[in-house]
Amino acid sequence: MKKQIFVTRSSMPALDEYIAEIKDIWNSHWLTNMGAKHQELQEQLVAYLNVPYIELLTNGHMALELSLQAFGFNKGEVITTPFTFASTTHAIVRNGLTPVFCDIDPATFTMDIEHIEKLVTDKTVAIVPVHVYGNICDIEEIERIAKKYGLKVIYDAAHAFGETYKGRGIGSFGDVSCFSFHATKVFNTIEGGAAAYENQDFGVKLYRLKNFGIRDSETVDGVGANAKMNEFCAAMGICNLKNVDNEIKKRKSVAERYRMYLGDVEGIRLNVVQKNIKSNYAYFPVLFDEKIFGSSRNEVMVKLAENGIFTRKYFYPLTNTFDCFHGQFDVGETPAALRISKRILTLPMYADLEMEDVDRICKIILECKI
Ligand SMILES: *Cc1c(COP(=O)(O)O)cnc(C)c1O
Predict the structure, then answer these.
(1) Which residue in 163, 181, 176, 189 sits closest to 48, CA to CA?
(2) If exposure means fewest CB atoms within 10 Å of the residue's CB, which of 23, 27, 42, 287 is most exposed?
């Protein structure tokens, strides 16, 4: 049987390294509830991400959901993108807020700043943009709009781990930036996430929301959840963080190899290379224009799968077309996102993807060209 290649492969430290890291836990018997590993990872990530503060959480979704909750909006509209993972939209809806979908910029796939301002109403409370694929949103324009209308900005930075914009940590923009440390992301803690922020009052609220709303041993004054990162996940993070720069470097080589084969092919468009950004090469999305290329996105996907290569249609379907929202949103309001979601395919991308495998993937794709 041919070797199978999946869209991603989780980063793991050497087993010995992880065992050495978790040994302390056998001494302390402290498994969760903000133990030593939690503390250590938190400090390391503040430095690595170059942000004022972070709160570690069970996953990126809870970072988004609890961050929105911490602002205490009890109702209102949130301007966001439908071209994202389910989590972004669900975090808004699960807070009792109404997502208002903004179309995307066809070049970067992030929220189109031409549209944001037109969507602001007297009910708007926040903007939740996504640095999709690690492509950075138009931060300055979003900041301008947020200031003008008094809106909070909660970035979904699930794809943007370790990136910088004009030399500043990407998590230092907006009111909060939410990272995901899920197994499939550039940096993982098995499951995990973090919210980066500057305002300490917000930090206190978020901390309580991740710990049942407990203020102290006899006072519970918030209706919190349980979203504490445990010590084993934090230990995984400490190990993976040591290697992440090296992994990003390897991802870069994979991206360059893909570009060498696919960069000048008619009917294929690759992700933009943005100025002023240190990229993490989180994903490798490719857009197929069937009329020019000769094969559709779906046909290419099937062909690759027949060869044991498993790609993903990130992000199809758009979140504003999900069955759970049936009849609530008009996808006609986000035509660029709809068009792109039908043509985009994310190719395998991870640090240990071998160059021969990239060569083989590209060869199969090029064979689909008619
Ligand atoms: C992965 C992801 C999330 C959720 O993160 P989890 O850690 O899996 O909960 C949120 N938004 C986007 C865009 C993601 O890709």
Answers:
(1) 163
(2) 27
- 169: three-class secondary structure by DSSP: strand
Query: Which DSSP symbol is given to 171?
Result: G
pLDDT digits (tens, 9 = 90+) for 263-304: 999 999 999 999 999 999 999 999 999 999 999 999 999 999
Q: At what angle do helices 36-49 and 231-262 cross, to 10 degrees?
A: 30
Residue whose C-alpha is closest to residue 179's, from 213, 217, 229: 229
Q: What is the pLDDT of residues 27-63, one digit of tens each?
A: 999 999 999 999 999 999 999 999 999 999 999 999 9
Structural contact between residues 57 and 229, judged by C-beta atoms closer than 8 angstroms? yes
Nearest-atom index, ligand 1, CA of 181:
7
For residue 313, the SS3 value is: coil
Ligand 1 centre from 62 Cα, in Å?
A: 9
Q: Which helix (H) or strand (E) holds 70?
A: helix 60-70
Q: Which pair of tokens denotes residue 283? A: 């994903």
Atom of ligand 1 nearest to the CA of 88: 11
Distance 161 CA to ligand 1 centre (A): 12
